[in-house]
Automatic annotation (TrEMBL):
Keywords: Metal-binding, Signal, Transport. It holds the Pfam family ZnuA. It is found in: Cell envelope. It comes from Bifidobacterium breve. The keyword Signal applies. GO terms for molecular function: metal ion binding. GO terms for biological process: metal ion transport. The keyword Transmembrane does not apply. It comes from the Bacteria. This is Metal ABC transporter solute-binding protein. Residues 1-31 form the signal peptide.
Length: 307
């Protein structure tokens, strides 16, 4: 995971900018014009940004500094983004934004719908890496998606506020320096985790585990039920428990945001079999204000769980 040169980074941002311009030119809007931009962000000259989830909102803030005002719609770890019902106030926030950042891949369709009906420049994280509906939507765990999304956000800022173009380029460079440090840490940790078979109660951290070169050994029946957001059968649960007991699984990844009686059975079996458990959530926990810090802490958890 080498550090991208400044020249290549500038080209990446330019490419993202061209894509955003093309999308804006082809799109339609029924949003109110500048007269409705009466928010504090607009009056202060800052770019008003709305992010569907707090992890992407943190990236948007890091890339804009004091030149942007970022509002996150979802901030709590006990709320399921897939099923979230936005309020009229949530939708209104998209209406006054100049830049909207959504996850995509059908994770937050309500946000995409709200943003598409406005004049905001829309950055869809999943689309920056060609990830589509039906693919694993938890894309903030992917190093590639984080980097591509950061460049797309920077391009959106430079389009919205060209007078501060150099500022946004510097913020982008600083952000990528931290991402490169994280990727170096992931590479170092992968020397311990490469080919390590793990199982998961839900495929939330699949991209991170893939970056760590781990092998997903979640029993197929359970994994399919989880992917379909359906209940696993008793046979699926027993198969998972038996697999943990057999000792072929070396780590269990547990999404505590989706804890229930089924996951209690799975984590219980893991504890009985002395299988290390890495516990995480979909949404960024409140003790973190930075996506990269959260990812770094999770990498530490994976490293510590390796026997």
């Amino acid at each position: 995971m080498s550090i991208m040169s400044n020249a290549k980074r500038a080209l990446a941002i330019a490419a993202a900018s061209a894509t955003l311009f093309s999308m804006a030119a082809c799109g339609s809007s029924n949003a109110a014009g500048s007269k409705s931009d009466s928010s504090s962000a607009a009056s202060s000259g800052k770019i008003e940004v709305v992010a569907s989830i707090n992890q992407w909102g943190s990236v948007a803030k890091d890339l804009g500094g004091s030149n942007v005002e970022v509002t996150n719609i979802m901030t709590k770890t006990n709320v399921e983004a897939h099923d979230y019902e936005p309020t009229s106030q949530d939708v209104a926030k998209f209406g006054t934004a100049k830049v909207a950042v959504v996850n995509g891949a059908d994770y937050d369709p309500w946000a995409t719908k709200a943003a598409q009906s406005t004049k905001a420049t829309l950055v869809t994280a999943a689309e920056t890496a060609g990830i589509k509906e039906g693919d694993n939507p938890h894309v903030w765990f992917s190093a590639k998606v984080r980097s591509n999304t950061a460049d797309a956000i920077t391009a959106a800022y430079q389009k919205a506020d060209p007078s501060h173009k150099d500022d946004y380029a510097k913020f982008n460079k600083d952000w990528h320096a931290k991402e490169d440090q994280l990727e170096s840490k992931i590479k170092d940790t992968s020397s311990k985790t490469e080919n390590l078979p793990y199982a998961a109660t839900e495929s939330v951290a699949w991209y991170l585990a893939d970056d760590l070169k781990m092998t997903d050994a979640t029993p197929k029946g359970y994994a399919q039920a989880s992917a379909n957001e359906s209940e696993p059968t008793p046979a699926d649960i027993k198969d998972f428990q038996d697999t943990l007991k057999a000792g072929s699984i070396k780590m269990l990844v547990f999404n505590s945001q989706e804890a229930n009686s089924t996951t209690d059975q799975i984590t219980g079996a893991a504890k009985d079999a002395n299988v290390p458990i890495v516990e995480l959530t979909e949404q960024m926990p409140k003790q973190y204000t930075n996506l990269l810090d959260w990812m770094s802490a999770l990498v530490d958890q994976f490293a510590a769980a390796v026997k």
